[in-house]
Amino acid sequence: MTALDLSPADAPPSGLAAERVAKSFGSVQALQGVTLHFPSGQVTALMGENGAGKSTLLRILTGDHRPSEGRVLLDGTPLDLASPIDARRAGIRIIPQEPEIIPHVSVAENVYVGSLPRRSGRRLDRAELRRRITADLARLGFDKVLDPDLLGSELTAAQRQLVEILRALTGEVQTRAIAFDEPTSSLSEHEVEALFALIGRLRDQGIAVIYVSHRMKEIFRLADRIAVLRDGALSGVLQAAETDERELVRLMVGRDMSSLFVRQDVATDEVVLDVRGLTTDDVHDVSLQVRAGEVVALAGLIGAGRSELALALAGDAPIRSGEIRLGGRLLRLRSPKDAIRAGLGLAPEERKAQALFLQRTIRDNTSLVSLDRLSRWRFVRRRDERALAQEYTDRLRVRAPSIEAEARTLSGGNQQKVVLARWLARRPQLLILDEPTRGVDIGAKAEIYQIIADLARAGSAVLVISSELPEVLGLADRVVVMQNGRVTGELGRAQASEEAVLALAMTDDLAGAPRTEPDTPTGVSR
């Protein structure tokens, strides 16, 4: 591993740079004298835990914040960035994590908002608009994944992200530097490949690319250099080809990667969840079991049917045939309320869209599924509600000013912990966690892994859905693999490896797919 010398005198003149940048908000020091160069024609990954200063640095580089000290330079020339408009005029762009889309106009109009072609001074020139959007979609490689005529209100989360990218890369001012803030969090595999191809072309065109992500595989695939922030200071800058995940984790959190997963042997023979021949519109003849104290991971490629299975188990998708037993009792699920009453909880994949009321408080979100236990004569006992929310947010170390803070003000990791606090307060027999660490930093991941271990130790059954194979292998007592809505195999802890999981996830012959036996006759890893 080779650390890079980033002193301003030696830094290459071409590209975007922060020089001795500091930023404070009252008594909180968000950035502490950061000097960091983003060279033209290279991808620099920016990593760090939530709260490390990444977002603050990006906002300073793009004119959304003024630094308390230091300055921003482009090609060695100091910039006076009083607003994002100044940054855009200088050729600096950012793709935000939360796209801003106008719902009642088309994709084409969203892309060119502020610079729409006009005819006779006022009327929209739709022919010219069509010509521009067609050319730009083809140039950027998004012509197969984005319909220019769709309304903003009709777009998926992934499509909204692509509109932001198009908006940033069109216009009269040449792009000199561009920052991507967690751009793949809502993209499909095909859309991710299109984005990566685009980033490669931007690098080849000499643009300085800043890439913010918690996903290690993406970082090592795309980045030339990796800069790590920790507690508002620059922890290190490394060449991507000369470092590894272990070193990056150490720079981010000050401890080794091997300490993230909590391995234990607390699974019992008591079957909590028993699914037999479950069939819905999306999953077919699925059978599996989860035992008390056991963590079972559902693995598979995108579209394998894992999330669809979770929704069926939680009463949110109609079941055509098969049966679900929880604690030995046959369930008749007509709605999620039936599943909750039976003792089953689901933390869904899209926490903002499916799990949280972002405008409501932490207290409201935490107590949501426990109101029946907190009410008398249909009136909620507010003192008990506050005590419950405080207990579980303290236990999970949710970082917020108080339980009255709105969920939208929290980082991704803390939002996820609020969702988990909701279900821990309910104390379900089975908790299903769909992508529980998506979009959260390494430190928050470690805390969530500890929560899962604590749940298992307390005797709960846990079913985890994850697309990250290291996470699957690090957490699970058993791994159940799915493809095309069917279970293709099962692996015990001793047998599970990335190669074995992928072999089952990508098998062509589903009917004859090998079903690997677990480590013990009962399916419990020992």
Description:
The protein is an alpha/beta fold and 526 residues long. It folds into four domains: 186 residues, P-loop containing nucleotide triphosphate hydrolases (Rossmann fold, 3-Layer(aba) Sandwich); 53 residues, no CATH class; 183 residues, 3-Layer(aba) Sandwich (Rossmann fold), CATH 3.40.50; 69 residues, no CATH class. The strands form six sheets. It has a six-stranded mixed sheet with strand order 6-9-10-3-11-12, sandwiched between helices. The chain has a six-stranded mixed sheet with strand order 18-21-22-15-23-24, sandwiched between helices. It has a four-stranded antiparallel sheet with strand order 2-1-4-5, with helices on one face. The longest helix is centred in the middle third of the chain and has 16 residues. The protein is globular. The two termini are 38 Å apart.
Name the descriptors.
single chain, 526 residues, alpha/beta, Rossmann fold, 4 domains, six-stranded mixed beta sheet, globular, disordered N terminus, disordered C terminus
Bulk shape: globular
Strand content: 15-25%
- Strand order within the widest sheet? 6-9-10-3-11-12
The CATH architecture of the largest domain can be given as 3-Layer(aba) Sandwich
Let me know the CATH homologous superfamily of the largest domain.
P-loop containing nucleotide triphosphate hydrolases
Query: Radius of gyration in whole Å, from Cα?
Result: 25 Å
| Named CATH topology of the largest domain | Rossmann fold
Strand-pairing-aware structural class: alpha/beta
> How widely separated are the two ends?
38 Å
Largest sheet: 6 strands, mixed
Number of helices: 18
Secondary structure: helix percent: 25-40%
